[in-house]
Queue: 2 jobs
Job 1
Amino acid sequence: MNALLNGLRVIEIASDRAAYAGKLMGDLGADVIVIESPGGHKSRGYGPFVADKSDPDNCLWWWHYNTSKRSVVLDLETEEGRENFTRLAHGADIVLEGEDPGVLDALGIDHTQIRAGSPELVWVSVTPVGRQRPDLHEPATDLTMLAGGGLVWNCGYDDHSLPPIRPSGGHAHHTAASFAVLGALTAVVHRDATGVGQHVDVSMIAATNVTTEVSSIDWLYRGATNQRQTGRHASEHFTMGIQVQTKDGGYCSNPLGLTTAGNYKDVMEWLRELGLEDEFPEFFFLQMGYDRGGVPLKVLGQDVEATEIYRAGREALYLIASKLTTPEFFVQAQQRGIACGAVYAPDEALADEHYRFRKYPVQVEHEDLGRSFTYPGLPFTGESIPTTIRRAPRIGEHTQEVLGEVATA
Amino acid sequence: MNAATAGLPKSQALSHIRICDLTGLLAGAGATRFLAAFGAQVIRVEQPAHEKHRWDFLRGGMSPDGTKQGINFGGGFNNHNVEKLSVTLDLKSPEGKELLGKLVGISDAVTENFSAHVMERLGFTFDWMKTKNEKIIYVANSGFGKAGPYSDFKSVGQVVQPVCGLSFQSGLPDHEPAGWGFAYMDHQGAYMMATAVLAAIVARNRTGQGQYIDFSCTEAGIGLCGPEILDSTVNGRPMRRPGKPNSNADNFPQMAPHGIYPASGSDTWVAIACRDDADWKRLAETIGEPWAQDPALATFEARYARRDEIDAKLGEWTKQSERDVVNAKIRNAGIPADIVSKPEDRIEHDPRTSSWGLWPEVEHDEIGKVRVEGVPIHMSETDWSITRGAPCLGADNDFVYGSLLGMSPDEIADLKERKVI
């Protein structure tokens, strides 16, 4: 079976904002051509670098976000560069760009004109506040968009003298890029049925605003403002902690605690197996939890006895965790039917046996360096899901190849 | 479709697509929500009323004013299921299975996010689906995927985020992980799941074939930590090391100063990102204090080396003014900054969301008029439309079983009587 997006051609103007969208489509089999200016896109300078040596062809940010793409260098400030760009766009299904409003217009690249010459083309723009309101446009970064878009308010610690926390990794970009892909594919599905392409305008600040789960809904539905709490959902009310520290200094998350009768029975057995029954004076609470058939979350704070039993259940997990390593506690809790997650570092997760069994880590060949490296693969499996991805291109590596294809097309 | 909402507008983008939707919660329902907003006919298949405790956990709740309670009042459920239809169906009964087969027969895709092996146990494998519809698309979404040692592990957002590494990536050095105050990966999982459905439709348009795609949410999360994972796998630099994470400061490209600083009011904060030396020059002029004018701070390297000292002094300066005053001063100087917005700030007072139409009002049969989230993309020809609230349980039984599957009112009444629907 062909790769999932085989046959789809995407012309991406290199940008921080749309890079992940191009990568997703490329890894799924689309022919993604990333257009860079002479000298390469600036994100080739973001680092980290192979062996810490600054080199635009060996930048790991570039490597990750540009897998499975081809690179073409075009100088869009020249007539020739613009002509080649238009030719490429006219041969594509999707154009993907993340330029500030006005930048492409100043170069004489107008999506309405280019689309007029290719009515089936889908043109996707990713900008901080959308292209419809250039008057609202101001300089913004991942940090400022996640703050203004409402994500940051929800994350941090019980201690509110510490600042709210913005998780690192570029999630304003990831979120907007996810919507760029959804918009692009929706437009292609419509185009396939009608022959009509269109412009897809993605607002990064809007994307973050609708990616805060209960935070937006609790306000919209009942005017509640949630407050941040360590390692768990922000909430209108202060809730019990869910992170336990393990004996190796790591952490595990137990979002639900002990709710079913089976949970209480299993934790009593777990304590006995570890010889901890005598170290846990509240053991009788666990028996009560079992006898009353568990503690549903909705009675917490209302039924005093049930709340005490539930709290004791959490105490038991703290004690058990202090005797086990992070992976031991995680796996043993889950094997006992308790919802639990090890707080892994991402590279630890990638190396975990579950993901190796699933062949999620993939070896990416860097034949130019005579080596291959381990990358995160695709989160999908299926007959048409590629099992490998290609290394990111060097600057302009495919310029001649691609322009040659267009010339003979 | 009920009479009250029948005349409301609908997007034409996906109006030719029908989804047999077995999803729930946010990770699954969020995926089909996107498709429904663009006009797909999404038929939620839910347990009948007598099957207590088997509904979507978010379905029940209180009305916004707290006076009414019931299975149609969940606020999150309403948000995640706008523009969808609801039918009831007892999937464990032989007739229920037969009816599901008929729904599969008239659908483009089947979606579900049950625990990994539920569909298999119920007998609803891809092979079974293909006997009902040879071009069917089936997309499954679970925390750990359908195969592998952890496939039966319990999974919610606060399990996915820790395991994939995203919780680790949120926090201050020498503190416990701050993690995420909401289920971010339920959203990202939903986006990836909808991507799989759309991509499979695009593929079917080319090949004429359907397919089965299994999505693993934790794997999607690992994939959001790429450059630093490569720093580990290529350079051998483990991500768990002293000083990491320092997530308000950490960034590619690196910047200094870069962080979240206090304003004068209680628990009010401003995010500031100084992208380059020119930003710093303007910020130093805005601050106007002698320490900021120090020529030794003119280069990124110097500021990065002294970032803790700069953060402390910058925080002292921001703390002297109200949040909105600090924010305006810095933004007026052309430097990226924003307030740490509370829900009311961004939903009620931000022209960037109001001018977008980001908080549409829907009509819900029992809740009445209520605002929900819109979609952060606008399409020039076939934009989204969100006007109908989530369906009440089984609200569309007559339409789906009658108009779509051609059953008579007597047959439908009989199925209701026997609690098949």
Job 2
Amino acid sequence: MDRKKYKQLRVIVTFFVSAIVSLAVIRDGYLLAATGILTGMVFMVLVRAKAKIRTDERESTVQEKAARMTYAIFAPTIGIAAFLLLLPSKGGISVFSKGEWLFVESLGMIFAYLTLFLITIYAISYHFFNKKFGGGGNEE
Amino acid sequence: MKNKLKVLRAMHNLTQEQLADRIGVSRQTVIAIESDKYLPSLGLAFKIANLFKVKVEDIFIHEGKEDDNEN
């Protein structure tokens, strides 16, 4: 199977998975939705492995740049959002600490943990790849 | 960085698709290299040079300014 056929197959599988997920969500069958997504993913991984489709180096570069930009935008955004959402409750503004506004603090906490999680993942992967590509070595 | 990939490809009567298949990349990558939008890795540059039986520096010409894939 060549790259073109693989791409066509990917479009078809995506279409079917989307249809299954849409139907499942309409019928409140979240297990079916999860199963559909999982099956689609496993199928594509197997096809990719069997057809020996390699990731093109330009594609990898594009993915790296997109990932870097996503991190650069997403991390500060949710970090600032967490700060802004937590600020009223810590600042003693009573309207945000009761009733229907309680969710603001909870959302702020979720965002704060998400930010920490994201930064931790970035730090770990940075450390791993830095080591993999020879950074920090003492060899001469 | 400029390159003579398009000229070499024409000299060898290869289509972009054929060249892409021979060097194991997509046609989009060949197009991007030919139009100086993407600078190939050292490995790919050597692969191209080996295919056309020329030196890497005969295909890729460095013009002195920083012109990598950071754009």
